[in-house]
Amino acid sequence: xxxxxxxxxxxxxxxxxxxxxxxxxxxxxxxxxxxxxxxxxxxxxxxxxxxxxxxxxxxxxxxxxxxxxxxxxxxxxxxxxxxxxxxxxxxxxxxxxxxxxxxxxxxxxxxxxxxxxxxxxxxxxxxxxxxxxxxxxxxxxxxxxxxxxxxxxxxxxxxxxxxxxxxxxxxxxxxxxxxxxxxxxxxxxxxxxxxxxxxxxxxxxxxxxxxxxxxxxxxxxxxxxxxxxxxxxxxxxxxxxxxxxxxxxxxxxxxxxxxxxxxxxxxxxxxxxxxxxxxxxxxxxxxxxxxxxxxxxxxxxxxxxxxxxxxxxxxxxxxxxxxxxxxxxxxxxxxxxxxxxxxxxxxxxxxxxxxxxxxxxxxxxxxxxxxxxxxxxxxxxxxxxxxxxxxxxxxxxxxxxxx
Length: 403
Ligand code: AMP
Ligand code: MG
Prior knowledge:
With 403 residues, the chain is α/β, with parallel strands linked by helices. The protein is built from seven helices and 28 strands. It has helices at 4-13, 154-163, 201-212, 226-239, 256-264, 297-316, 371-376; strands at 20-24, 37-38, 48-49, 53-56, 66-74, 88-92, 104-107, 111-113, 119-122, 132-133, 144-146, 167-171, 175-181, 185-186, 197-198, 215-222, 242-246, 266-271, 274-275, 279-285, 288-293, 327-332, 336-337, 344-354, 357-362, 379-383, 388-389, 394-399. The chain has a six-stranded mixed beta sheet with strand order 7-4-6-5-9-8, with no helix packed on it. Strand 20 and strand 21 (288-293) form a beta hairpin. The two termini are 29 Å apart. Bound molecules: adenosine monophosphate (AMP) and magnesium ion. Adenosine monophosphate binds at residues 180, 182, 184-185, 197, 199-202, 246-250, 252, 294-297.
């Protein structure tokens, strides 16, 4: 058996960021920038007001309450017209440009307007710059706003829209094929004949691929048949940037995935000192990375989380901490027992926060076939080789719902 860190390093060195493509900003959610993004304008583009109120000369308000003559009004979207001179004010709405001469805004709540709207009483004084949003306060021309390697989230798309940047260079989104194998598997709601089960891994893994930020490609349920497995793998490698297989990588007699990949691909068959997900294969078919995940439903998910997901995220253009799930320290609310066996166990746990402390408890049955507990789990708790956790013990956990 090899340590998980060795398998992780091996997978990552076999996955390279995909090439750069020109992408429409509107379609870039979840993609990764391949170049820094520069601002070419100042944002905000002009001095404007943060509140509804009156544009004034701050020094005029020093002896508040004071009366000022209202000489105009300006709404958002209008160009500034009437300037503000000593003893006057302009009614102004949030986002409207600051009129010439004005250096502060008094919010409407601190004013009283005369019935004929020609005079305003300023009830409290303001300092110069008060409630003014300065041109360029957010971004300046020539400023680098995002680094290369930024995972684009909704706010980033908003910044691109603000700057009028409609095309950017990103890494291409990986197309990731998923194949499930096994003669015992059937698809859909059909009645199960003796010995059959429904194929759940393909559905799960396609969804995990999508949540990791890649485009899933359903390559189907393939029979335990050498020619069928080979044809599916070759076609998948043509079409996709990476392939994930489920099943057939352990020691069974009908593990044709192992047989075929051993013949046509350059694979490393790993026995990793973890439970679940001990067997895992990684390699390349041509230059397409292949992730051979174990068939047990929980094992395939854990293997994806710990090894395939980091590899796929590297292909997306992510680096460093962005590859793996966040890890935090948590305290066991109840026992999480295990037996010594030379492996690190990943227990499926629920996580809750109490007064800033993360607390974990078992999410249910811990067998590698017990998918329901994995489905409901918030985190994987790392149980080093030994007897597990007693109530109150601390552990590192991988949080499953987060970048
Ligand atoms: P294998 O890795 O092919 O030896 O399969 C290990 C276990 O996982 C067996 O109990 C299989 O029936 C089960 N299994 C394999 N593939 C799937 C799948 N796609 N969906 C659900 N269970 C599976
Ligand atoms: Mg099988």
